[in-house]
Amino acid sequence: MNPECSLRTALRGALLPPALLLSVSCGGGSGSGDTSAAATGDPLTTYVSYRRVNTATAPPFSDLPELSSIQRGNKDFSREFDVVANIFDGSHGGIALDYFGTMYSADIDADFQDNKTGVSINWSQRLRSDASDTATFNLAYDRRIRGFFTGFSQPRSVAIAHAAGLLMVSDSGSADIKVFGTAATGNVPPLFTAAPPAPPWDLAYDDAADRLFASLTDGTIAVFDDFAAARPAAADRVIVPTTDGAAQATTSLRGIALVPGSMGDRLVFTDVGVLGAEVDGLVCAIEGAIAADGLTDTTILPANRSTLRDPVDVVATADGRLRVADLQTNSLLILAATALDDPLPAGPVVELRRTIARPSALTVEPVESVRTVGAVGDLEDPAAPLAGLVVTTDPVGSNGMLLLVDERLALPSERAFDFGAPVRGVTVDSLGDAFVCTSQSGTGSIGVVNRFVTQRGTGADVSFDDSRDRLLQIFPGIFIPEPSLEDPIDVDVDETRDLVIVSDPGFPRIWAFGRTAGKTAEPVRFAAGGLVTGAALPGGLDYEATDDRLFLAVSNGTIYVYDDFIDSPGDLPDRVITPADSFGTVQISTSIRDVLYDRTNDVLFATDVGATSGASADGAIYVFEGVSNAAGGLLAATRIVTGAATGLDDPSDLAWNGRNLWVVDEANETISLFEDALTLDGNVAPLATRVEADVRSVEVAPAAVAPTTGGSILGG
Questions:
Q1: Distant-in-sequence, close-in-space partners of 625: CB < 8 Å, separation ≥ 6
Q2: What is the distance between the alpha carbons of residues 341 and 127, in angstroms, rounded to a whole number?
Q3: What is the pLDDT of residues 663-681, one digit of tens each?
C-alpha cells in the first residue's frame, strides 16, 4: 500500500489540497496507540468518507454544492491518507465492504433531492493499493441503485448480509430500511422494507444470527430478529439506553457497531446529543444485545473525557479499540480498549486523534478475504467438496434455466432457476453468484444471479428479480467506437482483478468488464484481431489469473493464447496453437468449441465438435501437456479421447476439479463424467452420463462459497 497522499491527476490536484489532512496528535499523553502494530505490517485498512464545501471555480464541478471523497489509511491513522474515490454527487453517507473489497456507500444528491432521482448507492471496484484508476466513479467498474422506484429519500448508511447477499439501506427521510440484493442495479424497487419506530441512521448486522440493529434518531435502538429469513415489516424489540434503570439516557443516535468476538452480544454506538450544544457527544456500550428489550443498562463515556461533539460513526475491532468519526470537530479518534469499562478507568481514553475535514463515515477492511486466486471455475483441488454442478439449459421457445445438479449425475436437480431469457455459458464466483451469458433481440448481456449456488432456485426465489439480480451490458453510445455485446457464449471471472471476461461470436471479439459493473458498462478492454465472422469465431475461454493468460477456442480448429492479457493488452493473440497428429505435422482438429487449463499440472483440455452433427460420435477431447511454454503452430496432442464409447458427438463445454472432467454434449443433450481425466486416452466410456434436455453449459460449484463469519468480517 502506498502510505503517502499522492495527487495523481490534475483533477485530483485541483479538488484535493495536500493540506486537507492537517495533523496527528496523541490525546491525553497516552502515546501512539497501535502505531507499532502498523509499522510491523498490520493488515487492516481504514476508509473514511468526508465532505467539504466546494471551492471549484471552473465547470463542471463549480455547480456542485459539496464535494465528497473516500480516503484510505492504515488502521491506526499513523500514515497519510490517500484518496481512493471522488464522489461528486453531494453529501456522502455510510460505507461498507464485502469480502471482495467492493465498497457500498450511501449518497444523497442535493441537486436532485426534490424528485428523488439523484439518491444513489454507489459500488466501487476493489480498492487496490494503487488507486489511480479508481479515483472517480467509473462505468467500467461501478454502478448505482438510483431512481424513483427505489423510494430513496435520505439514505444514511448501508450494511451487508454477506451470506444472504442482501444490501440494507437506512433511509432517515422515509423512516425505513430498504433491502436490495447485492447484485442489483438501476431504478428498481426494494425487495422489502422494514419500519422502525423512529427514523434510522446507522445499521449493524450479525451475519451468523441474522439479526439487524438500527440506531434511531430518537435515541433508541431497533432490533430485527431473523431479518433476512423472516423479512419483518417492523422491529421485534426496541432497546432504550439507561444508566439508572428508569430514564432514557440518550438523545439522538448515529453510529452503531457490534464488537467482533462478542458473538453478537456487545453493541457500541454514538449519540450526537442536543443540536447546537458544545461538547455533548457520547460513546456508549451495552451488553446482552441479543436479548435486550426496553430499558437496558448502558455504559457511557462522558463527553468531557472524549471531547466529542458530533460523533457520527463508530467502528469496533476485536482488540477492543473503537474508531470514531466526529463531524463537528473534524476528527478521527481511537479510543482505548478500556474506554467503556465499568467503572471507567482513571487514565486517558483517547489514544490518538487525527484531523480530517468533516468526516461522515468510516469502515475498516477485513483482515481476511475469501477471494480466491483466479475464479471458482479454476478449481484444481479434487479434495475440495462440491455443492454440485451449475448447469444451463436453453430450450427453444422457452426461458433458459439454471440447475444445480449433483456431481455424480445420479440425482434429480436440487434447484431450478428461471432466468427469463436464453442462457448459454455460466461461471460462479466465491460468493455463490452465477454469471450467465444471455442474448435477446440482438443485445447481449451477462446476467448476474445473486447467490444462486447457496439459496436461489427453491421456494419463492426461483426466477430473475431486478431487485436482487442484474444484467451487465453495454449501453449504446457510452463507448466510442460503439460495438456492443451481441451473442455472448462463454464467461469467466477473475477475482484477483475483479474482471468478467466474455467470449462473443455474435460480434466476434473478447471483452473484459469490471465484475461490479451494471447496465451501462464500459469495457475495460477487448480483443478482436484474428476473429472473423463465419471463419474464425470465438468459442469457450479459460482465463488463468495467476499468469494473466487467456486460452480461447476458435471455430477454425485452433486455440488462441493471449499472454499478459490484461497487463499488456494487444488485439492479436500471442500464440495460435493448432492441434496436430502424433508427429506434429498434420492438423487434426475441425472446430474447437471449449478449452480448459489446469495450471497445477500445466495441462490444457480442448473439445472438438468434428465435421458433422448428430449421433456420429466424431467429437473429441484433446489433451496437451506443457502447454504454457508451447510455441504457436502445430502441436501434437498428448492424448486424444474419441470414439463410440465416449458418447461424444458435439462436446461443447467443460468443467474440472483437478481430477474429474464433466463434458456437455449439445447434440446428445448429455452431461458426462470422466474420472481421472489426467490419464484419459482413446475410446473410453464415461463413468456416468446424465440426459438433460437442451443442456448448454456446466460449471463446478464448490461447497465453500459465501461463507458466514461468526458475526463479523473485522479482526485485530
A1: 601, 602, 603, 638
A2: 35
A3: 999 999 999 999 999 999 9
